[in-house]
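pasting for ref. prot 1 ->
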Amino acid sequence: EGGCQTTFLVAPDLQTNRGVSRSCSGCRKYGKKPSPAPLCPWPYSRRPMERVHIDYCEYRGKMLLVMVDSFSKFFWCHVMNHDTTASKTLAVLFGWFCCRGFPTTLVSDNGPQFTSKEFAEKMSKWGIKHLLTPPYHPASNGLAERAVGTIKSHLKRMDCPVTPLELYVNLHSILYWHNASPQSSTDQTPFELMAKASVPRLFPQLQRPQKKTQEENRSVLPKNKVKLFQPGDQVLVYSNHTKLNSPGTVKEIKSNNSYIVLVDDCYKHVSGDNLRLLKDSVGGNFDTIETVPPDNSDNLNNSLSDSNISDDE
């Protein structure tokens, strides 16, 4: 009778077969995107305006510039209409900075207004350290992305029209109620942390130390395997455009999960989420596996300047 409950399949050469598949040039090139690295939180800010995050978003054809302070979670937002040039962006930021102070660090994506020469010059003149997140990796600027999501979500729920008065009034109402409400990550209102003002609270007895609250929130982050790469590592770089992998060499560590990688004689700013080590290969050929740096590799620091680093694919 058919009473078999468990069946075992013995494959003595399974590891060898895996090695052969990993060395296949086609398997490498058309492999899936690497699994994402574990969440890598930004360092705690110790005071208001120590680090701010900015981003653009669109609402019914109108462009909005959003900024959030990492310490207090204070929101700013300005209706830019269709003018998102570097000059207009700098003018709005300067007005915010004059009201609340100039930040130590400003984080943005790789939008053309943020990577322009004019923007870089003003950041340097104002004494602000400007950090660019890896291209096509919005999680690196998650604080700004969440602020954008919050503002757009409320505007949509209010079915806010885009007439100048209605959009202005509703947008600033959203900002006021957010900044006057205690945040789960700090257990205080952004107004209190930003201006150190004693804003009345509904339930003051529920207040907890800010750092304890942030530690509790951080403790629930997924415990994925940490992916670390060192300069000189041979890696496969996954392209978000072509969905293909290309061989490259890690040249510099930019941050906890951000690297400068030499791919096809071009330096690229890449998130660690898009990298995979080549150490498991056993023989086989890959069309462009040899990654040879340019002749001026002695001047690596100059080669890694912003003008020579292309956006990550």
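and prot 2 ->
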Amino acid sequence: MSTIHEWFTKFKFLRILSLSHYYNLEELLDFVGNLEHLRLLYLSWTNIKNYMKRFSHLQILKLNWCSYLEELPSNLHLLTTLCRLEFIFTRVRKVPPGLEKLKNLKIMMDLFEVDHNMERLRILRMH
């Protein structure tokens, strides 16, 4: 039986990956992080607690209904190709600094009390 790592190496040109409703997600994130061509990543309805891996070419990241997710990674602004970020029904209450630098980013999120970090996001398209 092949390992998870062997399975992911067979899909090295994968562009879209949905791991929604997958609950052993932590064991996969390192392997998923090696998918250089990945553009769309759906992690909705998972038990992800923190999301630290950097995907340099990721365009869409969906983290909806991740009830354990409390914060977004501080290096999220380094995903310069990210154009859509969704984190609806999560525990996230702050956005990391630097997101205002991503001029093409559209964000879908829950409404919560706006702190000074959120003020910088006025220039982004909020939906």
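The domain at 4-126 is CATH 3.80.10.10 (Leucine-rich repeat, LRR (right-handed beta-alpha superhelix)).
The chain has one domain: 4-126.
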